[in-house]
Specification:
single chain, 135 residues, mainly alpha, 5 helices
Amino acid sequence: MTDNRTTPYAALIMRIALGILFLAHFGLKFFVFTPAGTAKFFASLGLPGGLAYVTMAVEFVGAIALILGVYARVVAVLLIPVLLGAIYSVHGPAGFFFTNPNGGWEFPAFWIVGLIVLALTGDGKYALKPTFHQR
């Protein structure tokens, strides 16, 4: 059973937490590794270096959209491929546990679960642009 009084607040907390995680992940790439360094890392994995810039843009825009509640359910679904790509290219080969060298796929997989939960639960309280606005 769902508590309709508290579910919108739970979705709000989930939405903001996921947005902050994506913002932090973007910040790591942008401020610590630098965009050029991130592109070189992507190239070292056999991926196009330009994909790093696309990934960073998606993470940043997605983070802001989640935090503000702008079509959050759709954004949550659209962010899943970023994490699947991270699992496939970096974290999957490192094994399950995130404490493994190069970080395993445990954390990105759980992050995907959070995105799915948000997509199924709803945009949450105080969403600026709800995904399915009832008229």
